[in-house]
C-alpha cells in the first residue's frame, strides 16, 4: 500500500514541476526576454538597394497567387511592380539558377514577406517568409 502512495506522490510532483517550468518558459517568451532562438530580420538578407515604398496589397497578393507557374516574369511584374529587394540566387535544380525577389506585405509589413522565384524570364513559384 505504501508503495502505491509513493508513486502517486512522485507522479504529482513531476506534474507540478513540469507545469511550473512550462509557466516560467511562457513568461520568458511573453515578456520578450532572451529565448533559446534568435530571430534575424529578413530584410538583412537583401542584396543591393532596397525600395522601402514597395509593398504588396491584399489585392495584388490575390492576383499573384492566381497566376500559374510557368508564366512570363513580365506578367508577374505587371501585378507586383518593383520588389522591395533582390535576394541571392539559388541553385534549386541541377543546371537551373533561380532568381529571388522579396516583397513586404502591406497588411503585415514587419513580419511576413513574399518571395517570388524566377528561372530566367519564367515565373516558377513563391513562398512566404518571416
Report on this structure.
- The termini are far apart.
- The chain is elongated.
- Strands 1, 2, 3, 4 and 5 form a five-stranded mixed β-sheet that branches.
- The chain has helices at 2-30, 58-65, 73-80; strands spanning 55-56, 85-93, 96-105, 108-119, 122-129.
- Residues 29-39 have low confidence and may be disordered.
- The protein is an alpha+beta fold.
Question: Key terms for this structure?
Answer:
130 residues, alpha+beta, 5-stranded mixed sheet, 35% helix, elongated
Give the arrangement of secondary structure elements.
Blueprint: H1 2-30, E1 55-56, H2 58-65, H3 73-80, E2 85-93, E3 96-105, E4 108-119, E5 122-129
Parallel strand pairs: 1-3
Antiparallel strand pairs: 2-3, 3-4, 4-5
- Helix content class: 25-40%
Head-to-tail CA distance between termini: 56 Å
Give the tally of β-strands: 5
Could you tell me the strand content as a percent range? 25-35%
Low-confidence stretches: 29-39
Envelope shape:
elongated
Output the helix-strand order.
Answer: HEHHEEEE
The rounded Rg comes to 24 Å
Structural class, from helix and strand content? alpha+beta
Largest sheet: 5 strands, mixed
Average pLDDT figure: 80
Number of helices: 3
Compact description:
The protein has helices at about 1-30, 60-65, 75-80; strands at about 55, 85-95, 95-105, 110-120, 120-130.
Amino acid at each position: 500500500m505504501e508503495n502505491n502512495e509513493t508513486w502517486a506522490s512522485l507522479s504529482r510532483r513531476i506534474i507540478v514541476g513540469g507545469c511550473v517550468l512550462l509557466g516560467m518558459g511562457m513568461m520568458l517568451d511573453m515578456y520578450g526576454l532572451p529565448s533559446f532562438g534568435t530571430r534575424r530580420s529578413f530584410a538583412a538578407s537583401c542584396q543591393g538597394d532596397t525600395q522601402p515604398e514597395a509593398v504588396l496589397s491584399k489585392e495584388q497578393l490575390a492576383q499573384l497567387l492566381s497566376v500559374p507557374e510557368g508564366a512570363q516574369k513580365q506578367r508577374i511584374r505587371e501585378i507586383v511592380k518593383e520588389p522591395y529587394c533582390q535576394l541571392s540566387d539559388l541553385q534549386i535544380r541541377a543546371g537551373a539558377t533561380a532568381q529571388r525577389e522579396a516583397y513586404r506585405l502591406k497588411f503585415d509589413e514587419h513580419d511576413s514577406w513574399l518571395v517570388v522565384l524566377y528561372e530566367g524570364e519564367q515565373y516558377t513559384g513563391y513562398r512566404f517568409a518571416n
